[in-house]
Amino acid sequence: MPTAVSYLSAVQQTNARGRSRDNFSVPSTPALSLSPSITASSEDNAFSEDDENNCLVYPITPPTSEQIFTTVHTEFGHCANEAYRCVSKHDYTKPFEERTIEEPPYYVFFATHISLFILHLLGHMRDFFGKRFAKSYFAHLIPQNGCMTDCLCQPVTGVPGRTIVILDRHSIDNNYTQTYTGGKTRALNISSYNYLGFSQGGGCCSDAVKESIRRYGVSDCGTRLEGGSSELHVSAEALVARFVGTEDALISSMGFATNSTFIPALVGKGSLIISDELNHASICIGVRQSGAYIRIFKHNDMSSLESLLREVISQGQPKTHRAWKKVLVIVEGLYSMEGTVVNLPKIVELKQIYKFHLYIDEAHSIGALGPHGRGVTDYFNIPPSSIDVLMGTFTKSFGAAGGYIAGPKTLIDCLRLRGHSGPYAEAIAPPVLAQIVASMASIMGVVSAPRPTNSTFSLSPVGSIVTPRDKTKEPLGMVPASSLPTWMNLPPALADGSEARMRIRRLAFNSRYLHAGLKKLGFIIYGHSFSPIVPLLIFNPGKLPTFVRMMRSYSPPIVVVVVTYPATPFETARARFCPSASHTKEDIDIVLRACDEVGGILDLKHGSGERWGINTVCERAVELVHSVNV
């Protein structure tokens, strides 16, 4: 079977023919809306690509991984090998995987700080002299242009799936300005939050979105019910509550605003918020706007959290020393820059002792963790009733937009009135709601009979004792067909949940393989082994643009994202990889081979432990994945 390199080369050739506007047809892999296990017909299938919008017309019958293709499916790579699957769940026979900070050699720290000093010195000199002697030129440089414009502001087009189309540019003035050449390059995409691969331009989710546009239009006007929400809106909220296992849920049109506008509605003056030091900016803004007293604990450090809880609860409010009205602990399920997973079992244990309320931001973990893709509670097999407030977004695993708050019905009813996103913000548009409903329903699976009444989750009071979920009494269940819009018909592979389960298991395999493979190659890697966020530490800021450009010039090109201050500390600049269920094992092989080559040139391999050669890593991938400690 040809490697993914030949696949992407074939796609680049078709793109070149498309730019010359020649008609063509080549064999293709199918859209993933059909089950990848179906055997392909012997006849050649074909697709056509429009150069203007990159819309693909896919064949009906999908081939299997064992068959030979001459090109690559641009949105989702097919893989029928069951060995390349893994189940994302916590192993309670082993201790929780604590965050490990592996330090590089001292010369790396020294070179990094020298580079930062030179960078700041030159920057201040440019600002000082530019404002006085080259005002017009100085204004031209701020803020959109600079030496890393081609790395941090790379324009793309099309769907951010397994591969992505980047618009070619060139510079004649050392990257101060960029000029479009009119060309396009298709590259392997390892940088998007498309965890389950639902960002597709074709398939059943796209069909549902098109049908919603035909029925409702592109805005929420004219489809509202008496309560102020459309039927799709009500259906989506009920589906979210059932999916995460709570009594009720509300949805917001923007994920960032979900935190920043609803946290102030939960607590106020006289209350205490205890926040992880690496919580997202949206949480920080919401916390500041609440007016509550704020304390910070070390990232995912349970001893730091417990010590802080003892102090603040025993001392009470400053000056008056009265008891706090509320104590709210806010953490993330999966941290977007570190790739670490919250130590939920320990936090729930502390919750039983200190009787605080718990708020979990699952923007990155929902859909990406757990055997059923239902986030950290699913991953640790802890009932959602143990958590007071579950927050998440639809922009990652579900390929949509917006966010949600889930919890007890009394809480949600209160937040509908007190949260600023409720009465003041725009509602989510019907096409986005259709994408949410279709993707989430496919993960849950659809049954014709309604779920039994005794299978619903009941919310316990704050501080209740948490026990592992009894699957006979609290089954996760599937969504009744009556809960979906009557016009939304999912194909069998999606309706029975088999395809979504395959996606979840492929994501788990790809995440662990990339994480373990990079460590075996000698890189310093942060994060949990099941995390779909894999940070590769680069340290030196001068190497960031070089790493991006070398990965983009690799064959095939690879699009990566680099992160530095203020998102991370100055000295821990990194590349952040985001594997997806849409990637094949061969795709991860390509990324590992590219990192091995580029990392050797840039001197990035400073990790400790046993090292393997790149061929050994690729050949022993399955063994490597299942031997990773969890």
From TrEMBL:
Q: Which Pfam families match?
A: Aminotran_1_2 (PF00155)
Keywords carried by this UniProt record? Pyridoxal phosphate, Transferase
Q: Which InterPro entries match?
A: Aminotrans_II_pyridoxalP_BS (IPR001917), Aminotransferase_I/II_large (IPR004839), AON_synthase_class-II (IPR050087), PyrdxlP-dep_Trfase (IPR015424), PyrdxlP-dep_Trfase_major (IPR015421), PyrdxlP-dep_Trfase_small (IPR015422)
Give GO cellular component annotations, separated by semicolons: membrane; serine palmitoyltransferase complex
Task: Determine if Nuclease is one of this entry's keywords.
Answer: no
EC number in record: 2.3.1.50
Q: Which cofactor does it need?
A: pyridoxal 5'-phosphate
Q: Where is this region: Disordered?
A: 14-47
Q: Where is the composition biased (Polar residues)?
A: 14-45
| Catalytic activity reported | L-serine + hexadecanoyl-CoA + H(+) = 3-oxosphinganine + CO2 + CoA
Give me any GO biological process, just one. Answer: ceramide biosynthetic process
Q: Which GO terms describe its molecular function?
A: pyridoxal phosphate binding; serine C-palmitoyltransferase activity
Domain Aminotransferase class I/classII large: start-end pairs? 188-438, 499-593
Q: Which family does it belong to?
A: Belongs to the class-II pyridoxal-phosphate-dependent aminotransferase family.
Under the heading PANTHER family, the entry gives:
CLASS II AMINOTRANSFERASE/8-AMINO-7-OXONONANOATE SYNTHASE (PTHR13693), LD36009P (PTHR13693:SF3)
Under which name does UniProt file this protein?
A: serine C-palmitoyltransferase
Provenance organism: Suillus discolor
